[in-house]
Amino acid sequence: MQTVLFNSTIFGPIHSRRLGSSLGVNLSPSDGKICSFDCLYCEAGYNAQGPGTSGLPARTEVARMLDEKLAAMRAAGQGLDVITFSGNGEPTIHPDFAGIIDDTIALRDKYFPQVKISVLTNSTMLGRPQVVEALRKVDNNILKLDSAIERTVQLLDRPNLSYRLPKVIEQLAQFSGSGIIQTMITRGSHDGEAVDNSTDEEIAALIEAYRHINPRSIMIYSIDRRTPEQSLQKVEKAELRAIAARITEATGIEVSVA
Question: Which of 1, 101, 127, 223 is 20 to 30 Å apart from 109, CA to CA?
Answer without folding.
Answer: 127
